[in-house]
Request: fold
Amino acid sequence: GNSVTQMEGPVTLSEEAFLTINCTYTATGYPSLFWYVQYPGEGLQLLLKATKADDKGSNKGFEATYRKETTSFHLEKGSVQVSDSAVYFCALSDPANNAGNMLTFGGGTRLMVKP
Amino acid sequence: ETGVTQSPTHLIKTRGQQVTLRCSSQSGHNTVSWYQQALGQGPQFIFQYYREEENGRGNFPPRFSGLQFPNYSSELNVNALELDDSALYLCASSSGQLAGSGEQYFGPGTRLTVT
Reply:
C-alpha cells in the first residue's frame, strides 16, 4: 500500500534560518505529491504540489522537488519567519487507488520559529 | 467564492451514542472526502463521495457512514461511539476536474470528544 514518512518534530529554528523537512513515500502508481500546512486551530491548507517526477512545487518561499529516484519530496525554505510556525504534512495522491484523489498523509512535522 | 464549512465546531458525546457531522463543499466542487485526525497525527482517509455515490473507503468500520446530497454537501455519521473516535474530523472538497491530481480544499474541522 501507499505510505508517507516524514521527519519527526518539533523542528525549532531561529528566524531567517534555513528549513528542510524530509519526506519520503511509497506508492504503487505514479502519485502526485503535496505539502499541506496546518496553523494552530485551523484546517489544512495546500502549500504546494508536484504532479510528476522532477517537477518543483513552490509557494510563499517554500519549495519541494519530486524526486522519483529517491522517492522523496523534501520541503525547503531559505529564510523562515515566525509566522511560518505550524504543522507541515507531506501527502500523496495515487491514481491507482480506487478513490482517485484520496490523500495519504505523513504524521506531520511541527515547526517552531523563534524571533 | 465560499470555502468549505463544517458544523458543529466541536462537540462532546458519550460512548455508545451516535453523532452526525456536516460539511458544505466549496462552490463548484462535486467531490467530498472525510478524514479523521487523531491528536498529534496525520489525517486518515475515511471515505469519499462523488456525485452522491461513495467513491472509495479507507480502513474504517461500517459504523462510519456518510451521505452526499444533490447540492454536494455531505454528512458523516458515526454510530456506537468509542473513546478512540475522539479526534478532529476534516472534510475536504474538490472538483471532478481535479480527480487524480489529489488537490483538495479542507474545512476547519469538527473536534469530537467521546467520554
